[in-house]
Amino acid sequence: MTRVRVRVRSVLALVPAMLLPLTACGSGGDDAPKNVSASTAALGTITPGVLKVAVEPYAPYTTVKDGKIVGLDGDIINYAAKKLGLKVVPDVTDFAGMLAGVQSRRDDITVGGVAWTAERQKQGLFTDPPYYSPPAMAVRSGKAYSTVDDLKGLSLGTVTGYVWVKSIQAVPGAELHSYPNANGVFDDLGAGRIDVGFLDPLLIIAAQKARPELKIQTEYLTPPTAAQVKAKPAYAYFRPYQTGFYLPKQATKLEKAISAQIDAMYANGELAKLITKWGGDPQQFLVPASDVATARRGVDRPAGWTPPSIAK
Predict the structure, then answer these.
(1) Fewer beta carbons within 10 angstroms: which end of the chain, N or C?
(2) Statement: 135-238 belongs to CATH 3.40.50.150
């Protein structure tokens, strides 16, 4: 499966202390709020005044507790929806269901680290990036690796099916260790059986807190250069990727409205606050790589589009 969003859904067993109880939507949960304003109704959601959001259990990015989406992406969409006068109603599914729900317009939007791709945008709309997912490494405390060259000859771990498998296989002399879930990566890293684990950054940060006995820390990989990627195309997955909230093709007004809220959250400091709340570094998550603009200009953004960013 070729995907930039790199998660496999064995995550329910990831770090038990991090996981929250799940609740599906109750009957009647999609009932529209009373007295929906004209501006909110004009956003064109499936049910006026309601934002039906497809999510999967993937703490600390998204999970559902007491009928509310929590996590980094949950906080962002809840903030934007409140500003727009929309009631958020979660629809709990898996990753494939998230995309299918949007593309068939059973859901208004899906959130949770969905990566923008040129192919995916043909079947739906993407908001401006709520954050950029940096290439993160779990390493043993006291160790430091910063470039792809530093990884040569090391034992590198990730979860089976993640695109980092391809990247690791391209590193000269590196030995790939593939696991059914992230717990296996953390266990072997803590035991010294591997040198580096490649996983989504907030998972590593959460595991540091939940499992201090492993003595691991988070390092960010310096993205490979254009020349390195040209020589080894699989290195592209060692670069940051831009996430987005994903909507049906018909939802042009809603996409523009949510993108405007996301852009405002960069400007007013709200996104930096939320990234910090969930353990991330705003400079890593909220400053785009150089290829972000070029990827979308002339595709689903105007030729002069500038990706949102905080100041370096």
Answers:
(1) C
(2) no
| Domain residue ranges of the chain, discontinuous segments joined by + | 11-132+242-296, 135-238
In tens digits, the chain (312 residues) has pLDDT values of 333 444 433 333 344 444 333 434 443 444 678 889 999 999 999 999 999 999 999 899 999 999 999 999 999 999 999 999 999 999 999 989 999 999 999 999 999 989 898 999 999 999 999 999 999 999 999 999 999 999 999 999 999 988 799 999 999 999 999 999 899 999 999 999 999 999 999 999 999 999 999 999 999 999 999 999 999 999 998 999 899 999 999 999 999 999 999 999 999 999 999 999 999 999 999 999 888 999 999 999 999 999 999 986
With b for 16 or more beta-carbon neighbours within 10 A and e for fewer, the 267-285 pattern comes to eeebbbebbeebbbbbebb
Tell how far CA 111 is from the center of its chain. 8
Task: Give the pTM.
Answer: 0.84
Burial per residue of 23-37, b for 16 or more beta-carbon CB atoms within 10 angstroms, e otherwise: eeeeeeeeeeeeebe
Q: Is 11-132+242-296's fold the same as 135-238's? A: yes
Contact 145, 219 (CB under 8 A): yes
Longest dimension (CA), the chain: 64
| Superfamily designation of domain 11-132+242-296 | Periplasmic binding protein-like II (3.40.190.10)
